[in-house]
Specification:
MetI-like fold; mainly alpha; globular; single chain
């Protein structure tokens, strides 16, 4: 029953996102027809184009038509590019999702081990050094790290060509190589936060009664940490990661500008400038669906870490 309620909640959330995405851009000043034809176009030509675009219909009717088409996979036609939005954003979404996935991978393979090590050696020199590094990394905005990485590895060491993006369709290995630095720039500050959160969570777990019982049975600190404490300590981290998904997607969009990556971010910015509503609305809703679905998966996965949690 709870699982069904979660499904219903997911569907309602997506509908609310679609409503917000559609109506939010209707209040922005500017006319898509004027943006497409230019200010020199005659009022008659602008009015004719508005009629063709369906912009003269009541806004609720426009939303109903748009939502009905979106559910069937028809995202409309771009005002600026005169092509199907689905085709326009499909390839770019792949790029952004791959960048987001790589960022999450780097975050997990660095943040969790560092958090465990910091907790294991609490009070020692290693833990103090790691804590200092964590605090330093948390203070750096990802876009600034991206600029530093570009300057050091691109301009000084010349390990890659800044702005020399390689399409995944042309050379997937080259594409992955180019995406490593932006993914690291996105992951580093968030990895530091995950490490700090996990260290604190492990510290709290170590004070509980079941840990004292485990030690009384002759288990070493490492055995207790990895076999008993870590699984419970990961619960708040998993919750944080669910909220972090949206932040990483947003970070990917910004990082695309720093590294000249032709992902969804550049298209979104240009579409906002051109009042290309079908593109903007589709991008926002697709990102919203991605975040909501990932959060739903994380929510359901809690049971893997704690069987007492009901789905």
């Amino acid at each position: 029953m709870k699982f069904i309620k979660k499904i219903i909640s997911l569907a309602l959330t997506i509908i609310i996102i679609s409503i917000c995405a559609f109506f939010a851009f209707q209040v922005i000043k500017g006319d898509p027809a004027t943006s497409k034809l230019g200010t020199s176009a005659t009022p008659e030509r602008i009015e004719t184009l508005r009629e063709e675009m369906g912009l003269n219909k009541p806004i609720t009717q426009q939303y109903g038509i748009w939502l009905s088409n979106f559910v069937r996979g028809d995202m409309g036609t771009s005002y600026s590019y005169d092509m199907a939005v689905k085709e326009l954003i499909g390839d770019k979404f792949v790029i952004t999702i791959l960048l987001t996935t790589m960022s999450m991978f780097f975050l997990l393979v660095t943040g969790i081990p560092l958090g465990v090590i910091s907790a294991k050696y609490k009070g020692r020199t290693l833990e103090k050094v790691l804590t200092t590094i964590n605090q330093l990394f948390m203070a750096f905005p990802p876009f600034f790290l991206g600029i530093l990485l570009t300057f050091f590895f691109g301009l000084i060491l010349k390990w890659f060509k800044p702005g020399g993006y390689i399409s995944y369709r042309t050379n997937f290995t080259g594409f992955i190589s180019y995406m490593i630095l932006p993914a690291i720039a996105i992951a580093i500050p968030r990895s530091a936060m995950v490490a700090q959160l996990l260290k604190n969570s492990i510290g709290s777990e170590l004070k509980l009664g079941y840990v004292r019982t485990a030690f009384s049975k002759g288990n070493t600190r490492g055995k207790v940490l990895y076999s008993h404490v870590l699984k419970n300590a990961l619960m708040p981290v998993i919750t944080y990661l669910a909220f972090l998904i949206a932040d990483i997607v947003a970070g990917s969009i910004i990082m695309e500008q720093v590294f000249s990556i032709p992902g969804i971010g550049r298209l979104l910015i240009s579409s906002i400038y051109n009042r290309d509503y079908p593109v903007i609305q589709s991008i926002v809703v697709c990102i919203g669906i991605l975040v909501v679905v990932v959060n739903f998966i994380v929510d359901v996965s809690y049971r893997l870490f704690d069987p007492r949690v009901e789905i």
